[in-house]
Protein backbone atom coordinates (compact mmCIF):
# COMPACT_ATOMS: atom_id res chain seq x y z
CA UNK A 1 0.00 0.00 0.00
CA UNK A 2 1.57 3.32 -0.96
CA UNK A 3 1.92 5.61 2.01
CA UNK A 4 0.78 9.14 1.43
CA UNK A 5 3.71 11.54 1.22
CA UNK A 6 3.54 15.23 0.47
CA UNK A 7 6.12 17.94 1.02
CA UNK A 8 3.73 19.24 3.63
CA UNK A 9 2.63 17.76 6.93
CA UNK A 10 -0.64 19.56 7.72
CA UNK A 11 -3.85 17.60 7.30
CA UNK A 12 -6.43 18.25 4.60
CA UNK A 13 -9.68 16.52 3.60
CA UNK A 14 -7.65 14.68 0.94
CA UNK A 15 -4.92 13.41 3.25
CA UNK A 16 -7.57 12.40 5.76
CA UNK A 17 -9.51 10.45 3.11
CA UNK A 18 -6.28 8.77 1.99
CA UNK A 19 -5.51 7.75 5.53
CA UNK A 20 -9.05 6.38 6.07
CA UNK A 21 -8.86 4.36 2.85
CA UNK A 22 -5.46 3.06 3.88
CA UNK A 23 -6.89 1.91 7.22
CA UNK A 24 -9.83 0.23 5.49
CA UNK A 25 -7.50 -1.56 3.07
CA UNK A 26 -5.25 -2.81 5.84
CA UNK A 27 -8.29 -4.52 7.39
CA UNK A 28 -9.56 -6.03 4.14
CA UNK A 29 -8.72 -9.39 2.61
CA UNK A 30 -6.96 -8.66 -0.74
CA UNK A 31 -9.09 -11.34 -2.37
CA UNK A 32 -12.29 -9.50 -1.49
CA UNK A 33 -14.12 -8.06 -4.52
CA UNK A 34 -14.00 -4.50 -3.13
CA UNK A 35 -10.22 -4.56 -2.58
CA UNK A 36 -9.03 -3.48 -6.04
CA UNK A 37 -11.69 -0.76 -6.22
CA UNK A 38 -10.54 0.60 -2.88
CA UNK A 39 -6.89 0.42 -3.98
CA UNK A 40 -7.81 2.55 -6.99
CA UNK A 41 -9.74 5.01 -4.79
CA UNK A 42 -6.80 5.21 -2.38
CA UNK A 43 -4.28 5.81 -5.16
CA UNK A 44 -6.52 8.50 -6.61
CA UNK A 45 -6.90 10.38 -3.38
CA UNK A 46 -3.40 9.75 -2.02
CA UNK A 47 -1.70 10.85 -5.21
CA UNK A 48 -3.60 14.07 -5.79
CA UNK A 49 -1.62 16.52 -3.69
CA UNK A 50 1.71 15.09 -4.84
CA UNK A 51 0.60 15.44 -8.45
CA UNK A 52 -0.57 19.00 -7.86
CA UNK A 53 2.67 19.96 -6.12
CA UNK A 54 4.80 18.34 -8.84
CA UNK A 55 3.06 20.39 -11.51
CA UNK A 56 3.16 23.72 -9.69
CA UNK A 57 6.13 26.08 -10.03
CA UNK A 58 8.61 26.46 -7.24
CA UNK A 59 8.65 29.60 -5.10
CA UNK A 60 8.58 32.67 -7.37
CA UNK A 61 11.86 34.53 -6.97
CA UNK A 62 11.83 37.67 -9.14
CA UNK A 63 14.82 38.11 -11.42
CA UNK A 64 15.73 41.55 -10.07
CA UNK A 65 15.62 40.60 -6.38
CA UNK A 66 18.42 42.03 -4.24
CA UNK A 67 19.58 38.58 -3.12
CA UNK A 68 20.64 36.00 -5.72
CA UNK A 69 17.95 33.48 -6.61
CA UNK A 70 20.16 30.55 -5.60
CA UNK A 71 20.70 32.05 -2.14
CA UNK A 72 16.96 32.75 -1.70
CA UNK A 73 16.17 29.14 -2.60
CA UNK A 74 18.73 27.86 -0.11
CA UNK A 75 17.24 30.02 2.64
CA UNK A 76 13.74 28.85 1.65
CA UNK A 77 14.75 25.19 1.89
CA UNK A 78 16.44 25.80 5.23
CA UNK A 79 13.36 27.58 6.55
CA UNK A 80 11.09 24.71 5.50
CA UNK A 81 13.52 22.20 6.99
CA UNK A 82 13.85 24.25 10.19
CA UNK A 83 10.05 24.34 10.47
CA UNK A 84 9.79 20.58 10.08
CA UNK A 85 12.78 19.58 12.19
CA UNK A 86 12.19 21.88 15.17
CA UNK A 87 10.85 19.98 18.17
CA UNK A 88 7.93 22.33 18.87
CA UNK A 89 6.80 20.31 21.87
CA UNK A 90 10.23 20.78 23.45
CA UNK A 91 10.07 24.51 22.65
CA UNK A 92 6.73 24.69 24.48
CA UNK A 93 8.04 22.56 27.37
CA UNK A 94 10.93 25.02 27.76
CA UNK A 95 8.21 27.72 27.96
CA UNK A 96 9.64 29.52 24.94
CA UNK A 97 6.14 29.50 23.44
CA UNK A 98 2.80 29.86 25.23
CA UNK A 99 1.05 27.37 22.97
CA UNK A 100 2.35 24.26 21.28
CA UNK A 101 3.11 25.03 17.66
CA UNK A 102 3.67 22.31 15.07
CA UNK A 103 5.14 21.87 11.59
CA UNK A 104 1.66 21.10 10.25
CA UNK A 105 0.72 24.73 10.89
CA UNK A 106 3.00 25.87 8.08
CA UNK A 107 1.04 26.53 4.90
CA UNK A 108 3.90 25.00 2.93
CA UNK A 109 5.68 25.54 -0.38
CA UNK A 110 2.73 24.83 -2.67
CA UNK A 111 0.37 27.21 -0.88
CA UNK A 112 3.11 29.85 -0.83
CA UNK A 113 3.15 29.83 -4.63
CA UNK A 114 -0.66 29.96 -4.73
CA UNK A 115 -0.57 33.00 -2.44
CA UNK A 116 2.12 34.63 -4.56
CA UNK A 117 -0.10 34.17 -7.62
CA UNK A 118 -3.11 35.70 -5.88
CA UNK A 119 -1.00 38.71 -4.86
CA UNK A 120 0.47 39.08 -8.35
CA UNK A 121 -2.93 38.83 -10.06
CA UNK A 122 -4.28 41.46 -7.71
CA UNK A 123 -1.19 43.68 -7.92
CA UNK A 124 -1.19 43.82 -4.12
CA UNK A 125 1.10 46.40 -2.56
CA UNK A 126 0.22 46.08 1.08
CA UNK A 127 -0.39 42.75 2.80
CA UNK A 128 -1.65 41.88 6.27
CA UNK A 129 -1.00 38.37 7.57
CA UNK A 130 -2.81 37.25 10.72
CA UNK A 131 -0.95 34.21 12.07
CA UNK A 132 2.64 33.98 10.87
CA UNK A 133 4.22 30.86 12.42
CA UNK A 134 7.63 30.41 10.77
CA UNK A 135 6.92 33.06 8.18
CA UNK A 136 7.04 31.08 4.95
CA UNK A 137 3.99 32.81 3.44
CA UNK A 138 5.36 36.11 4.79
CA UNK A 139 8.67 35.58 3.00
CA UNK A 140 6.99 34.43 -0.22
CA UNK A 141 4.73 37.48 -0.38
CA UNK A 142 7.45 39.94 0.60
CA UNK A 143 9.60 38.62 -2.29
CA UNK A 144 7.19 40.06 -4.86
CA UNK A 145 8.38 43.39 -6.30
CA UNK A 146 4.85 44.90 -6.22
CA UNK A 147 4.53 44.18 -2.49
CA UNK A 148 5.96 47.05 -0.47
CA UNK A 149 4.80 46.07 3.02
CA UNK A 150 3.77 42.89 4.84
CA UNK A 151 2.40 43.55 8.31
CA UNK A 152 2.65 40.18 10.02
CA UNK A 153 0.80 39.48 13.28
CA UNK A 154 1.54 36.67 15.70
CA UNK A 155 1.20 36.12 19.41
CA UNK A 156 4.41 34.15 20.04
CA UNK A 157 7.57 36.19 20.76
CA UNK A 158 9.73 33.11 20.03
CA UNK A 159 8.86 33.40 16.35
CA UNK A 160 10.59 36.76 16.01
CA UNK A 161 13.99 35.25 16.80
CA UNK A 162 13.22 32.13 14.76
CA UNK A 163 11.98 33.89 11.61
CA UNK A 164 14.01 37.06 11.35
CA UNK A 165 17.37 35.52 10.32
CA UNK A 166 15.70 33.74 7.38
CA UNK A 167 13.87 36.89 6.27
CA UNK A 168 17.09 38.90 6.52
CA UNK A 169 19.12 36.42 4.49
CA UNK A 170 16.37 36.29 1.83
CA UNK A 171 16.53 40.10 1.55
CA UNK A 172 12.91 40.73 2.56
CA UNK A 173 13.08 41.83 6.22
CA UNK A 174 12.87 45.55 5.37
CA UNK A 175 9.38 44.95 3.94
CA UNK A 176 8.13 42.92 6.92
CA UNK A 177 6.61 44.61 9.97
CA UNK A 178 6.24 41.77 12.51
CA UNK A 179 4.04 42.60 15.47
CA UNK A 180 3.95 40.27 18.43
CA UNK A 181 0.69 40.59 20.39
CA UNK A 182 -2.80 39.09 20.28
CA UNK A 183 -3.94 39.86 16.74
CA UNK A 184 -7.00 41.84 17.84
CA UNK A 185 -4.75 44.23 19.78
CA UNK A 186 -2.47 44.66 16.77
CA UNK A 187 -5.44 45.36 14.51
CA UNK A 188 -6.68 48.07 16.88
CA UNK A 189 -3.17 49.55 16.96
CA UNK A 190 -2.98 49.66 13.17
CA UNK A 191 -6.23 51.62 13.16
CA UNK A 192 -4.89 54.02 15.84
CA UNK A 193 -1.80 54.57 13.74
CA UNK A 194 -4.05 55.55 10.85
CA UNK A 195 -3.04 52.70 8.54
CA UNK A 196 -4.74 53.31 5.19
CA UNK A 197 -5.73 49.65 4.75
CA UNK A 198 -4.42 46.58 2.96
CA UNK A 199 -4.82 45.24 -0.55
CA UNK A 200 -4.53 41.65 0.64
CA UNK A 201 -5.33 40.15 4.04
CA UNK A 202 -4.36 36.54 4.78
CA UNK A 203 -6.08 35.08 7.85
CA UNK A 204 -4.43 31.96 9.24
CA UNK A 205 -4.47 32.08 13.05
CA UNK A 206 -6.70 30.60 15.78
CA UNK A 207 -9.78 29.19 14.06
CA UNK A 208 -12.48 30.23 16.58
CA UNK A 209 -11.51 33.89 16.06
CA UNK A 210 -11.80 33.90 12.25
CA UNK A 211 -15.17 35.64 12.21
CA UNK A 212 -13.96 38.35 14.60
CA UNK A 213 -10.86 38.92 12.48
CA UNK A 214 -12.95 39.57 9.37
CA UNK A 215 -15.37 41.78 11.32
CA UNK A 216 -12.51 43.80 12.78
CA UNK A 217 -10.62 44.15 9.51
CA UNK A 218 -13.78 45.55 7.94
CA UNK A 219 -14.90 47.70 10.88
CA UNK A 220 -11.46 49.20 11.43
CA UNK A 221 -11.16 50.13 7.76
CA UNK A 222 -8.18 47.84 7.23
CA UNK A 223 -9.36 46.45 3.88
CA UNK A 224 -8.93 48.76 0.92
CA UNK A 225 -11.95 49.28 -1.33
CA UNK A 226 -10.85 46.59 -3.81
CA UNK A 227 -9.01 44.56 -1.22
CA UNK A 228 -9.22 40.79 -0.95
CA UNK A 229 -9.27 38.62 2.15
CA UNK A 230 -7.90 35.09 1.86
CA UNK A 231 -8.68 32.70 4.68
CA UNK A 232 -6.86 29.42 5.23
CA UNK A 233 -8.17 26.08 6.51
CA UNK A 234 -11.81 26.80 5.72
CA UNK A 235 -12.41 23.13 4.91
CA UNK A 236 -10.65 22.13 8.14
CA UNK A 237 -9.85 18.54 7.20
CA UNK A 238 -13.50 17.97 6.26
CA UNK A 239 -14.60 18.01 9.91
CA UNK A 240 -17.43 20.52 9.30
CA UNK A 241 -19.31 17.99 7.15
CA UNK A 242 -17.75 14.71 8.33
CA UNK A 243 -16.68 14.78 11.97
CA UNK A 244 -14.40 11.89 12.93
CA UNK A 245 -15.96 8.52 13.63
CA UNK A 246 -17.02 7.87 17.22
CA UNK A 247 -13.75 6.01 17.95
CA UNK A 248 -11.79 9.22 17.39
CA UNK A 249 -14.18 11.49 19.24
CA UNK A 250 -12.15 11.59 22.47
CA UNK A 251 -9.08 13.16 20.84
CA UNK A 252 -11.30 15.32 18.68
CA UNK A 253 -13.10 16.94 21.60
CA UNK A 254 -10.18 16.85 24.07
CA UNK A 255 -8.57 20.18 24.81
CA UNK A 256 -5.03 20.50 23.55
CA UNK A 257 -2.10 22.83 24.02
CA UNK A 258 -2.74 25.02 21.03
CA UNK A 259 -4.97 28.04 21.38
CA UNK A 260 -7.57 26.30 19.22
CA UNK A 261 -8.32 24.48 22.49
CA UNK A 262 -9.74 21.44 20.69
CA UNK A 263 -10.36 20.31 17.13
CA UNK A 264 -14.09 20.31 17.77
CA UNK A 265 -13.97 23.94 18.91
CA UNK A 266 -11.90 24.86 15.85
CA UNK A 267 -14.36 22.99 13.62
CA UNK A 268 -17.26 24.93 15.06
CA UNK A 269 -15.31 28.17 14.59
CA UNK A 270 -14.68 27.36 10.93
CA UNK A 271 -18.23 26.21 10.23
CA UNK A 272 -19.74 29.30 11.87
CA UNK A 273 -17.24 31.45 9.98
CA UNK A 274 -18.15 29.89 6.62
CA UNK A 275 -21.85 30.47 7.27
CA UNK A 276 -21.21 34.03 8.45
CA UNK A 277 -19.25 35.01 5.35
CA UNK A 278 -21.66 33.32 2.94
CA UNK A 279 -24.63 35.17 4.42
CA UNK A 280 -22.90 38.55 4.84
CA UNK A 281 -24.87 41.06 2.74
CA UNK A 282 -21.79 43.10 1.78
CA UNK A 283 -19.40 40.27 0.89
CA UNK A 284 -18.87 37.86 -1.99
CA UNK A 285 -17.06 34.64 -1.27
CA UNK A 286 -15.65 31.57 -2.98
CA UNK A 287 -14.37 28.53 -1.12
CA UNK A 288 -11.55 26.90 -3.06
CA UNK A 289 -10.49 23.31 -2.38
CA UNK A 290 -6.82 24.25 -2.23
CA UNK A 291 -5.18 22.02 0.38
CA UNK A 292 -7.21 22.55 3.59
CA UNK A 293 -9.45 25.12 1.87
CA UNK A 294 -8.80 28.75 1.00
CA UNK A 295 -11.74 31.15 0.98
CA UNK A 296 -11.56 34.28 -1.15
CA UNK A 297 -13.61 37.18 0.20
CA UNK A 298 -14.22 40.55 -1.45
CA UNK A 299 -16.73 43.33 -1.09
CA UNK A 300 -19.78 43.15 -3.33
CA UNK A 301 -19.26 45.04 -6.56
C1 LIG B 1 -1.45 28.13 11.13
S1 LIG B 1 -0.19 29.09 11.87
C2 LIG B 1 0.16 30.32 10.68
C3 LIG B 1 0.81 29.76 9.46
C4 LIG B 1 1.36 30.77 8.49
N1 LIG B 1 0.39 31.76 8.07
C5 LIG B 1 1.91 30.09 7.27
O1 LIG B 1 1.51 30.46 6.16
O2 LIG B 1 2.71 29.17 7.40
C6 LIG B 1 -1.10 29.96 13.10
C7 LIG B 1 -0.32 31.02 13.84
O3 LIG B 1 -1.28 31.86 14.49
C8 LIG B 1 -0.72 32.31 15.69
N2 LIG B 1 -1.81 32.76 16.54
C9 LIG B 1 -2.71 32.00 17.17
N3 LIG B 1 -3.55 32.77 17.90
C10 LIG B 1 -3.18 34.04 17.69
C11 LIG B 1 -3.67 35.29 18.15
N4 LIG B 1 -4.71 35.37 18.97
N5 LIG B 1 -3.05 36.41 17.75
C12 LIG B 1 -1.99 36.35 16.91
N6 LIG B 1 -1.48 35.18 16.45
C13 LIG B 1 -2.07 34.05 16.83
C14 LIG B 1 0.04 31.11 16.21
O4 LIG B 1 1.04 31.51 17.14
C15 LIG B 1 0.61 30.51 14.93
O5 LIG B 1 1.91 30.94 14.70
UniProtKB/TrEMBL annotation:
InterPro entries per record: Cation-dep_OMT, SAM-dependent_MTases_sf, SAM_O-MeTrfase
Stretch list, region Disordered: 247-266
Keywords, sorted A to Z: Methyltransferase, S-adenosyl-L-methionine, Transferase
Listed Pfam families: Methyltransf_3 (PF01596)
Keyword Chloroplast belongs to the record: no
Molecular function via GO: O-methyltransferase activity; S-adenosylmethionine-dependent methyltransferase activity
Example of a GO biological process term: methylation
Compositionally skewed regions (Polar residues) per UniProt: 247-261
Domain of life: Eukaryota
Entry similarity comment: Belongs to the class I-like SAM-binding methyltransferase superfamily. Cation-dependent O-methyltransferase family.
UniProt-recorded name of the protein: Caffeoyl-CoA O-methyltransferase
Organism: Rhodotorula toruloides (strain NP11) (Yeast)
